[in-house]
Structure formats: C-alpha cells, structure tokens
C-alpha cells in the first residue's frame, strides 16, 4: 500500500492543524492530500480570493440593505480603518520605523507582501519628501465587485483610503495623488501613487 505524501504546505503549517481531531476510521492523510492547498502559491491565492469575496459580498449586501450609496461609504471607511490599523501594528512591532513618507511607503509594500499577492510594485522615487510608485497586477477588489455588478458604484482604486489611513495615522501632512493609469475589464491594473510634502 502506498503511503500518502502530505503537501509541503501542510507540513510547514502543521502548528495551525495540531489540534484537529478526526474520527477513528477517517483517512486523515487522504483528506489532507485532497483538500489542503498543495503549494504556497495556491494557498495564498485562495486566501486572497476569500478576502476579495468577503469584501465584495459584504458591500453588495450593504447596498441591498441601505442603498447603493452605502457601498462606497462602507468601502472607504473599511479601507481607511484597515490602513490605520496596519500602521498602528507596524509602529508597535517595528519601533525603529519613524513616521514619514518612507515609512508610509514601507507599510504599503508590507501590505502587498502579506495581503495582496496579485499586486507588484515599481518604485520611481523614494526620499524623505516624496514617494512615487506604480502598483500593477490584478485588482482583486475590482475583480469581485465586477462579478457582483457593483464595481461602477465604487471610486477606483479603492485602496486610496487605505493609503490615506496610513498617512493620517502617522500624523503626516502630505499630498496624496492616486491615478488609474489602467483598469481593464479583466481587472488588470496599473495605479500611480504619489505621496509628497505639501
């Protein structure tokens, strides 16, 4: 009888699964091998898809309950709060991170690293007075809201309040410009972000 090889992702993340209890007679290895994401890319993409689905589903339901204008209001408030919370967490865990434009840019990159795998970034300029970068890839928020037919009720990119939350939480008095250079029906995007001194 062949021994079932557990996915490397399961082995690496086994601390999360150590308290799972199966019934006697259940083939634990077979269930894990069939349903646990086999690669970290697959795991990351599934988590991102769930995040997008949660965001879009909640906005659609808010629109049904409170009207179309609630969709943009909820998205803006949520994204701003997320940026603020991420900033507070980073300032708490990285005491050497000094408030400023370079720190705001680093927090944005950290959000891409941990939460937005479909985005890539390209820095054009970074100093104490200005951060200019492009964010490229697939906008999962656009993708889900497009499929739910509510994308037209939002201001793109929806990450602008996130970045504003980062800057405000650091107490930065800056100009924030975000331009949509590309946003296609398949949700591929290029956003230009400029944070600069006033």
In short:
This protein has helices at 8-12, 14-17, 28-35, 40-66, 69-93, 101-115, 140-147, 160-169, and strands spanning 119-126, 130-138, 174-183, 188-197. With 198 residues, it is α+β, with helices and mostly antiparallel strands.
SSE map:
Blueprint: H1 8-12, H2 14-17, H3 28-35, H4 40-66, H5 69-93, H6 101-115, E1 119-126, E2 130-138, H7 140-147, H8 160-169, E3 174-183, E4 188-197
Antiparallel strand pairs: 1-2, 2-4, 3-4
Task: Explain what you see.
With 198 residues, the chain is of the alpha+beta class. The protein contains eight helices and four strands. The protein starts with 7 loop residues before the first helix and ends with a strand.
Question: Tags for this entry?
Answer:
198 residues; alpha+beta; four-stranded antiparallel sheet; 8 helices; 4 strands
Major beta sheet, strand line-up: 1-2-4-3
Flag low-confidence runs.
none
Distance between the termini: 70 Å
Describe the global form. Answer: globular
Number of strand segments: 4
Tally of helical runs: 8
Q: What does the radius of gyration come to?
A: 20 Å
On the 0 to 100 scale, the average pLDDT is 94
Largest sheet: 4 strands, antiparallel
Overall helicity? 40-55%
Order of helix and strand elements from N to C terminus: HHHHHHEEHHEE
Structural class: alpha+beta
Taken as a percent bin, the fraction of beta residues is 15-25%
């Amino acid at each position: 009888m062949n021994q079932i090889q557990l996915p490397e992702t399961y082995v690496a993340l086994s601390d999360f699964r150590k308290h799972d209890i199966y019934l006697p007679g259940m083939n634990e290895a077979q269930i894990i091998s069939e349903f646990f994401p086999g690669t970290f890319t697959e795991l990351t993409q599934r988590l991102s898809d769930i995040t997008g689905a949660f965001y879009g589903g909640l906005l659609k339901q808010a629109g049904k309950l409170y009207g179309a204008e609630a969709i943009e209001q909820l998205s803006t408030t949520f994204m701003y709060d997320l940026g603020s919370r991420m900033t507070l967490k980073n300032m708490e865990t990285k005491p050497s991170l000094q408030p400023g434009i370079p720190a705001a840019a680093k927090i944005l990159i950290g959000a891409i690293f941990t939460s937005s795998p479909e985005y890539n970034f390209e820095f054009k300029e970074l100093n104490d007075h200005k951060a200019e970068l492009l964010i490229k890839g697939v906008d999962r928020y656009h993708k889900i809201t497009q499929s739910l037919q509510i994308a037209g009720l939002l201001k793109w990119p929806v990450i602008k309040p996130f970045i504003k939350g980062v800057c405000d939480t650091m107490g930065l008095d800056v100009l924030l410009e975000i331009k949509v250079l590309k946003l296609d029906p398949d949700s591929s995007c290029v956003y230009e972000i400029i944070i600069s001194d006033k």
